[in-house]
Amino acid sequence: MTRDDLTRMIGEALAKVAPEIDPGSIKPAANFRDQFDLDSMDFLNFVIALHKTLRVEIPEADYPRLYTLDDAVAYLASKT
Amino acid sequence: MPTLGADMEAGTLVEWLKKPGDALKRGDIIAVVDTQKGAIEIEVYEDGALEQILVAPGTKVPVGTVLARIGGTGAASPAMTTARETPQRVRVSPVARKLAADLGVDTANLKGSGPQGAITREDVERAAAIKAPVPDVTTKPQGATLAMRTAIATAMARSKREIPHYYLSTTIDMGATTAWLRAENLKRPVTDRLLPAALLIKAVALALREVPELNGHWVDGGFRPGAGIHVGCAISLRGGGLVAPALHDADKAALTTLMQALQDLVARARAGSLKSSELADPTITVTNLGDQGVDAAFGIIYPPQVAIVGFGKIADRPWVAAGKVEPRPVLTASLSADHRASDGHRGGVFLSAIDRLLQHPEAL
Questions:
Q1: Looking at residue B32, which CATH number applies to its domain?
Q2: Residue range B211-218: average pLDDT?
Q3: Which A residues, 33 through 72, put their C-beta within 8 Å of a C-beta on chain B?
Q4: Complex ipTM value
Q5: Would you say residue B298 lies in a domain?
Q6: CA-to-CA distance for B123 and B147, rounded, in angstroms?
């Protein structure tokens, strides 16, 4: 899976949680929570969406590695 | 206009359910009348035919006014009507009806909390608060957001005007809860993981069993205990506003069930698809502003409820345990309560119970 594929899937997972998010507007190094005003329930739903799309197990301890687009792409690339 | 109680002086004809020429038989509902006690159906006492309507819908007339004439099978006779309070029909107080019209709330879909299920002003305010705009901030006009703002303004202003709040807070050591959660979530697939919010809500629900005077409503100058422990969860909506729908019987639900119900509730609240019972039933509200990074939240009671519990963030702080200072995850829990329904001492007992329950998360 390419970085572009992962970037697209992350954008889709975020948009599923917060429909107003434009995947094209995601800043690569900014924290999703701050950027899109996500709460812990939103973040959990984001992780669930990634889990369902990519079929990867994401332990809670790894959540901080999903806080930004750059980090999330790198993390998911290592898992897929 | 029949009299429906010693205190009734007048009623407003809402609608005619029969038109002139219609055959009537004993027991038919002929019209709906609005009174201070809500909407009441007017029942016909004899067989015949509706000859003439004398009072137009929307007209307020004194008790005793002839509303219509009914022709009998023989000679014409004056209308003989009486009122029957029928629970199957939606009863709406006049104030509620007007407010509903102003706020664009359809009373047909509401569940009343007033006498015999009558829809009251509070019910309409609550419904207006949850008449959530579909959270599409980019394309939605200001109207829906404005209506919600108005509903929140009405409810909160009324709360501060009528409810003598008292405020308490306590700091809770969350070490046991966070450690238990970490271990538990390690065992669970991501779809079944718990958030601290589920444990906090469960602790609140169980603590309410011990201090039931915080669980219910202040209605007609007195406290009415809740029929169950239905915890309203304040949920902020994208694009502004909030709703606080109920997690029904939160004290009886297992944590996994409660978590799923909470996820479902948040999703539906934000999609604007809540059920009327979820809006009508909360017996207390919990507001959790920890995600926003605040240390503590002191809420304004949502009338006619009598208490709101606020939680701040779980943060590592210096904590003294067994004579030594050490870092611990701690949480500030607050209670805003209606002093008409409870006293500070009992509020303190309640917060202590939450603290105690959170020291044994495995038992929640």
A1: 2.40.50.100
A2: 97
A3: 37, 39-41, 44-45, 47-48, 51, 57-61
A4: 0.90
A5: yes
A6: 15
